[in-house]
Amino acid sequence: MKSILNKTHLAVLASVALAACATSSFAETLKGRIDVANQSNKTLVVAGITFQTNAETDYSEELQAFANLKQGQKVSVEFDRSGSNVYTAKRITLEE
């Protein structure tokens, strides 16, 4: 009986771990030059991909804020993808 309980617990734990992995998002990174930095809606286009920013977006020390992003700057964007075409910038770093 104890063996059956242990196997049941193991199966439940494995199911929970699998579900957690399936629903979590993993950050991706893209490097490129800024095509557009839209100050009014705080979106950024790099390599043809539009990134949304929000209060949680972190900026490198050189940038400090969205207002310092300019067309042509080379940046690295760490982002989460949700849905099919929604990209949210987690961190934006100025590249050299």
Helix and strand topology:
Layout: H1 2-23, E1 28-38, E2 43-46, E3 49-52, E4 58-59, E5 74-82, E6 86-94
Parallel strand pairs: 3-6, 4-6
Antiparallel strand pairs: 1-2, 1-5, 2-3, 5-6
Pfam families: DUF5666
Keywords: Signal
Domain DUF5666: 31-92
N- to C-terminal distance: 63 Å
* Poorly predicted runs: 18-24
Class of secondary structure makeup: alpha/beta
According to CATH, the homologous superfamily of the domain at 26-92 is: Copper binding periplasmic protein CusF
Q: What's the architecture of the domain at 26-92 in CATH terms?
A: Beta Barrel
* Strand segment tally: 6
Shape: globular
Question: Could you walk me through the main structural features you see in this protein, from its secondary elements to its overall organization?
Answer:
The protein is α/β, with parallel strands linked by helices and 96 residues long. The chain has a domain at 26-92: Beta Barrel (OB fold (Dihydrolipoamide Acetyltransferase, E2P)). 23% of the residues lie in helices and 41% in strands. The chain has 1 helix and 6 strands. The chain has one helix at residues 2-23; strands at 28-38, 43-46, 49-52, 58-59, 74-82, 86-94. The protein has a 5-stranded mixed barrel with strand order 1-2-3-6-5. β5 (74-82) and β6 form a beta hairpin. The longest helix has 22 residues, at 2-23. The radius of gyration is 20 Å and the shape is globular. The model is unreliable at 18-24 (pLDDT under 50).
